[in-house]
Amino acid sequence: MFNINIPYILLDKNFDIIDFDSNVDKRLLVDGFLKNVLIDYTIDDFETPVHIGLEVPELNNISIIFSKHDQNLICIPTKNHRQSLSEAWRNISFGLREPISSIFAMIPVVAHNINKTDFEQSISNLDVINLQSYKLLRTITNISIAANICEGELPGTTNIDFSILLEDLITSVKSVVRNISFESEIENDIFINANQTLIKNAILNIICNSIKFKSDEDVKITIKLYKDGNRAILSYKDNSKGIKDEYLPHIFNLAFSKDPYYDNEPDPSLGIGLFVVKAIFGQAGGKLLLSSQFGEGVKYSISIPMVDDSDMFFESSVSDFLMNKYSELFIQLCDYCRLPSLE
User: Fold this and answer.
1) Beta pairing class for 180-186 and 219-228
2) Which helix (H) or strand (E) holds 318?
3) Are the CB atoms for 132 and 99 separated by under 8 Å?
4) SS3 state of residue 8
5) Distance between CA 288 and CA 280 in Å, rounded?
6) Rg for the chain (alpha carbons), in Å?
7) Is the pTM of this model over 0.90?
8) Which helix H or strand E contains 199, and what residues bound it?
9) What span, in angstroms and rounded, lies between the C-alpha atoms of 185 and 160?
């Protein structure tokens, strides 16, 4: 019925199986399995190809690319690319080596300028050391979160006001990052059960990618948070470079790191960010869909079960973000924001 040369599953608009290739993993054909994976979505969510990693332990090495085809849904299962241990360690060592090397290089320069009583230049050198120290702290923070994820030991959760948290993050980012704009629609009183610190890190990781891979001088981000039945939907879209089709099945893998503009060249980063993002929202019961057309930005749709209320009274925490020099805001966005003054 559907003539392509790779294993596929074809679903109707209600996500019932109507055709499949004989080489498809039979576990994916179990009655109701794919319908349950897609329970929070409609066929119109897949106008552009969407990558979904399966959360079932025995199938966690399989991802699926979903794409709308006429009024049906074509599903292409793919084996997750697993980075070798040596690749993972190489990425981590780069993330540690670069800031440490810069700090070591600056120390004798600062000493020389102090001896010359060139204090203005010394402050400039200390600013470099300060930035590299933040980058080192970011690397260690993300490695620590990734290690906890791998060991299944993420910190506990509480009921939090997701609406206020998201509004505060947007306001704080706009305060310290140049050439960034947000178009946001945040519905009030949306509560989820999650770890507040980790959720902040996850959202800042997504924003950091939008800035890092920007396709224009001005970064433009659209964020919506709204209720859909008993779930909260976080919709996020940016104007970044986007992600190449061949990278989509692997982007949530630990230590997978590619710059979309360079074929087969590793991006000089840890490759931890989206691995962490997926796990953090997964802890909150969330399902994350990512879609992208290369050159046209990235879209995230995250569906999270809601709870009735918050465990505590939430007030705006913008001042906490901006006054605390070691807040998640400055740590995750240190490459792109105005850091707290040394004075």
Assistant:
1) parallel
2) helix 318-323
3) yes
4) coil
5) 10
6) 22
7) no
8) helix 196-212
9) 19
What integer is the mean pLDDT of 256-264? 59
Tokens of 188: 């009030």
- Reported as a single tens digit per residue, the pLDDT across 85-133 is 555 666 666 667 677 777 777 777 777 777 777 777 777 778 888 888 8
Q: Could you read off the pLDDT of 293-304 as tens digits, one per residue? A: 888 889 999 999
In 106-169, beta strands by DSSP E? 158-161
d(CA 125, CA 107) in angstroms, rounded, equals: 8
Q: Which of 242, 272, 267, 256 is nearest to 80 (CA)?
A: 256
The amino acid at 162: F
Query: Rounded distance, CA 334 to CA 343, Å?
Result: 18
CA distance 257 to 262: 11
Give the chain's end-to-end CA distance (angstroms, integer). Answer: 70
Dmax (CA) of the chain: 80
Computed from CA positions of residues 278, 282, 283, 285, in that sequence, does the dihedral angle turn out positive or negative? positive
Residues in the chain: 343
Can you tell me the distance from the alpha carbon of 169 to that of 267, in angstroms, rounded to the nearest whole number?
Answer: 27
Which residues pair with residue 303 across a beta bridge?
233, 287
Tokens, residue 113: 């300028």
311 contacts 159 by C-beta, under 8 angstroms: yes
With both helix axes pointing from N to C terminus, report the angle between 196-212 and 273-283 in degrees, rounded to the nearest 10: 150
